[in-house]
Design goal:
A six-stranded antiparallel beta barrel has the order 2-9-13-11-10-14. Strands 6-5-3-8 form a four-stranded antiparallel beta sheet, with no helix packed on it. The chain is built from four helices and 21 strands. With 391 residues, the chain is of the alpha+beta class. The C terminus is likely disordered. Helices cover 25% and strands 42% of the residues. It starts with a helix and ends in a 17-residue tail after the last strand. The chain has four domains: 94 residues, conserved putative lor/sdh protein from methanococcus maripaludis s2 fold, CATH 2.40.420.20; 51 residues, no CATH class; 76 residues, Helix Hairpins, CATH 1.10.287; 90 residues, Efflux pump adaptor protein, beta barrel domain (Elongation Factor Tu (Ef-tu), domain 3), CATH 2.40.30. A hairpin with a 3-residue loop joins strand 18 and strand 19.
Length: 391
């Protein structure tokens, strides 16, 4: 009997200890990391990836159909505007020029005769030796040949212009990026439904641009004139600089396989690369567009921010420290950096705030008691909790 009583008392004792420990655990204040609101620099950026292209880049084709007789440049050559790039077989077009010249000369001879006939008819009519109808016939024949001469002259000009197009020259100063045809190959003229032959590409590498795409949620932050930091895979240790030139108002969309639903919307932007770096069209450029920058403003770590519903609205909040308790403070944000965010309203320099850990901050309530642990947040003089008297 005594053993049963002792066993029961032991179980009850263990249960009492468990309940006390559990109550203590529930009442234990959570530990939060803290830092002090300070002034610091902040840079707000938008990331964009694009492809380098020359501002002035042309694809050289042919305005006449024919076989290539000669190519006078190679890839990498520097050319000036007007330099001869290649020659197309001119034999067909030279024959057309000769035919047009012969036709014009023949009609010029006929015109001379028609002119003399008309002058003679005028004299005969004045002497009443021929009727007026004969005079009109001579006049009409002379006028008709004058018109024919104008047509022949136009045909000759057209033939000469076509013949001149067999010599293809550079329309710009630049560098030959690539030659796509060889001597002996045929080239054709493009039509509405059929593209023409591309003989080579030439670009002015003195002015390079990046055509990039920015998501619809970020494009509203971008304005022409904003500075851009550019990195290129070919030069991993070099930072290039640029400036936003323009933003296209025509979006591009990406859809899922099958085209059934919209996946994303982005807007093309054009960035001019400053200086004359040794870059080439087609290179991939990773751009960081600086949308805002301040040397000294109130900043806090992103980890300190939370979202709570206050008065029916979702607000950004921060937990400010008062002694060993927290106060939930709604804040207004400014620029957004990579790790920090600008505080426009709600906090003051020197305020002590909770900066983490996130699982703890997500469950904090206004006025809750906490245990403090300093964590370096924004890289200034650290804050350390003061010891209370008597401890």
């Amino acid at each position: 009997m005594v053993k049963k009583i002792l066993a029961t008392l032991g179980v009850l004792g263990l249960l009492a200890i468990f309940i006390v420990l559990n109550l203590r655990a529930k009442g234990q204040a959570p530990t939060v990391w803290v830092d002090v609101v300070k002034r610091g620099p902040i840079r707000s950026t938008v990331k964009a990836e694009g492809e380098i292209q020359a501002k002035n880049q042309v694809r050289i084709g042919s305005d006449v159909m024919g076989r290539i007789l000669e190519i006078r440049v190679e890839e990498g050559d520097t050319v000036k505007r007007g330099d001869t790039l290649c020659l197309i077989d001119p034999s067909t077009y030279l024959a057309q020029v000769r035919q047009a010249k012969a036709r014009l000369q023949q009609d010029l001879a006929r015109l001379e005769k028609a002119k003399n006939d008309y002058l003679r008819a005028q004299e005969l009519y004045a002497d009443s030796l021929i009727p007026s109808s004969t005079l009109e016939e001579a006049k009409t024949a002379y006028a008709t040949l004058q018109a024919q001469i104008r047509v022949d002259s136009s045909l000759l000009e057209e033939a000469l212009s076509t013949y001149a197009k067999t010599v293809i020259t550079s329309p710009i100063d630049g560098v030959v990026l690539g030659v796509h045809k060889e001597v002996g190959e045929m080239v054709v003229v493009g039509t509405i439904n059929t593209p023409g032959s591309v003989i080579m590409d030439i670009a002015d590498l003195n002015t390079l641009e990046v055509e990039a795409s920015v998501d619809e949620t970020e494009v509203v932050k971008i304005q022409p004139g904003q500075p851009v930091r550019i990195r290129v895979d070919a030069y991993p240790d070099t930072l290039f600089h640029g400036v936003v030139q323009r933003i296209s108002g025509i979006p591009t969309t990406t859809v899922q396989a099958g085209g059934t639903s919209l996946q994303g919307v982005s807007y093309p932007i054009l960035i001019r690369i400053l200086g004359h770096p040794k870059l080439y069209p087609g290179m991939t450029a990773n751009c960081e567009i600086i949308t805002g920058e301040k040397d000294s403003t109130l900043v806090i770590p992103f980890t300190a921010l939370g979202k709570r519903t206050l008065e029916g609205k979702s607000r950004d909040v921060v937990f400010r420290i008062h002694g060993d308790r927290v106060e939930m403070v709604p804040v207004s944000l400014g620029l957004t950096g990579i790790r920090v965010v600008e505080i426009v309203d709600g906090l003051s320099e020197g305020d002590t705030i909770a900066v983490g850990p996130h699982p703890v901050l997500a469950k904090l309530e206004d006025g809750q008691q906490v245990s403090l642990e300093w964590k370096k947040g924004i890289g200034q003089k650290p804050w350390r909790p003061q010891r209370k008297a008597g401890r």
